[in-house]
Amino acid sequence: MPEFRGALPLAPLLLLPALAAATEPLWFSDLPPTAEWTEKTLRAHGGLVERGRGGVSVKRLWLRAGDDPAHASYLPMPAGEVVAEGPEREPVAPKPFSAEAGGGIRFEMPEEGFYNAYLLSREVRDGTLETRVVKAEVLMHSCANGHDRRFTEGRMPPRVTAGVPFELVRERKPDEDFHSRAASGEPIAFLALNQGEPVAGAEVRLISNTGWGKTVITGPDGRAEFRMVRDYFTDWPEFDKRRRQDYLVLAEYRRPLEGELDGRPYAQAHYSATLAGTYYPAEPEYQSYLYGLGVMLLAATLSVGGVYHYRLRQRRPERRETFDEKA
Amino acid sequence: MKRLRAFVNGVDIQRFRTWFQLFAFVLLVYSGYLYIDLGNSLPVFACGFNDAGRGGVCYLLPLQHQTHIPWESLFSWRALGLVTGFLTFFAWLLVLNKAWCGYVCPLGAIQDWMTALRRRLRLRYSVYSLESFTRLKKVKYILLVLLILIPFAISNPVEGLPHVPEDMATPFCTICPARMVIPAFTGDFSQWTLDFSTVTALVMTSLGMAILGIFFVGALVNKRFFCFFCPMSALQALFSNIALLKLRKDGDKCTRCGDCYRVCDMQIKAIADDVERKILIEDDCMMCLKCVAACPEEGCLKATFMGIPVYEATEEGFFRRQQRRGGE
Ligand code: SF4
Ligand code: SF4
Ligand code: SF4
């Protein structure tokens, strides 16, 4: 469990500032905490979903705490400002839920494209305005809805949500579509944005499923690029190319800012943001062109040999069928 | 009208087909770059793995996805995709019937181009004996049944029986040569690999690459080599008799000269032999209409659309084509 300063366990209504004060990073994950919850999910492009009324896809995001994606604990959902937007910037109203194993938010995704969901909190502590943004970017795609490229391309670019003070955005690759996935060994980049404007000097840290981490300071373009580590090694018979691994990205920065919140003055602001995602083994880890070409050439050579041999045996390969003249 | 008819009946159908195939090839393989999308239920091998350039998608790809469905969902909204997919496929097929194969299919066109290459190389071509032909033509129906049953079996495991591995989810696509050949035309060779992640994936991708090797040699020495085994052709054949475009024969006018059979790339003997049936669309026929062009008997063979003749054998047309050939 994260350590909350303030009165988190005792007074749920005061949770909003307490959330900002939590010392461990908080983030959203669609990975359920128990096998029982996993059973309710279906694998879809864009992660795990549940099936809602009328067959609509429903995303359940669990709140987690800690900077180790594989072992981070599950938390009950604190009271806080929850904001979400659909692919066409339509507002979405996520429903908070809590279960014995944890809590989070749940929302329907009737549209194809990316949904953004946030848990926001602000608090003044030691003369600093602490702003925390927990973000999830969730893809909804079903092949049954078709693959109109113009439509997909229109919905690929990442969006920021108005009113969200600081957020991480995953940069798209030039040829990315709804089927693309992040892969080990491949570059992955994030933008740190303040109300859509790039933030220079933000500290962005990426942590892999096995706890590998790297920190990058953003330049004037607010960009932080990483190469996703390859950290899945196993005996070949156990290798699973569909093995999902979670990564976590944390970003923070400070700036002088004078103001007052709920009667408490501050002289600087500290922003922190989280965004989680998934990555998979890269294709070159388990696919081979060389062997592919080898098998193809072998089959072609054997076929040529077969045809040649057949033709040697059949000196006259012309058609031998005759028409039934009496019919 | 009469003159127009005479003109149409006198055209060099082979040349017309070559140009039409080229147009269809560009449309289905490259027009995706112009955001053209004819949907994903096309009755030809407009391969869906050609991500960048495809102007539409071969129906077998969604069909394998849609039959990957639990039994109970067959009676729910999820079956809607299966039904609409089939109805769209059917609507396309209704118009052109098996001429999709003769005039539109990119893989069919590639095989015809390989035949043209063989001619240039002055290589001899092969034909099947009647016995092999009869045996081999069943393969496509077996493939069709398997490509529907295997995904369904993955979604509906039977207790006590071994589970079908997920790597067989699109069993036909894995072994379909178009998966490698068509994307290669846009410079995408990403499908030309063996997948070592599981034994099933390795076996299936090896089979796919081996079939690709056989395809290259087969299509060079045998006209339309792959089409004899094509499950799309089998699926089309199930409905070809109710489509609007038909190949008709007037047996009374047939002298059984055998010209039609001799020009037929698909070795369809019935086209010359059968003088009883009025509609003569065999399951392997690609409605290329070469047989109509080769027939010297007035009105003996004809292609009709909703009963209206669109291309028919005429003496005049026959001689015009002969002269043109002689003059070349
Ligand atoms: S691999 Fe073959 S069957 Fe599959 S989509 Fe491509 S052309 Fe169709
Ligand atoms: S039979 Fe030949 S032409 Fe027809 S869909 Fe199959 S590959 Fe294409
Ligand atoms: S029967 Fe006629 S239309 Fe059919 S494939 Fe043979 S030549 Fe072409």
How is this fold's topology laid out?
The complex is a heterodimer of chains A (327) and B (328).
Chain A: H1 15-21, E1 26-29, H2 35-38, E2 42-44, E3 47-51, E4 57-65, E5 73-74, E6 81-85, E7 95-99, E8 102-109, E9 113-125, E10 128-140, H3 149-155, E11 167-170, E12 182-183, E13 187-194, E14 197-198, E15 203-207, E16 213-217, E17 223-227, E18 245-261, E19 264-280, E20 287-288, H4 289-313
Parallel strand pairs in A: 10-19, 12-19
Antiparallel strand pairs in A: 1-4, 2-3, 3-4, 4-5, 4-8, 6-9, 7-8, 9-10, 11-13, 13-14, 13-17, 15-16, 15-18, 18-19
Chain B: H1 2-9, H2 13-30, H3 60-66, H4 79-96, H5 99-104, H6 106-121, H7 130-136, H8 139-155, H9 171-175, H10 177-184, E1 194-195, H11 199-221, H12 231-239, E2 245-249, H13 259-263, H14 270-273, H15 290-294, E3 301-305, E4 308-312, H16 315-327
Antiparallel strand pairs in B: 2-3, 3-4
Helix pairs in contact in B: 3-8, 6-11, 8-12, 10-11
The structure holds iron/sulfur cluster (3 copies).
Q: Can you give keywords for this protein?
A:
heterodimer; A: 327 residues; mainly beta; eight-stranded mixed beta sheet; seven-stranded antiparallel beta sheet; B: 328 residues; mainly alpha; Alpha-Beta Plaits; three-stranded antiparallel beta sheet; 4 strands; 52% helix; binds iron/sulfur cluster
What's this model, at a glance?
The complex is a heterodimer of chains A (327) and B (328). Chain A is elongated, with a radius of gyration of 27 Å.
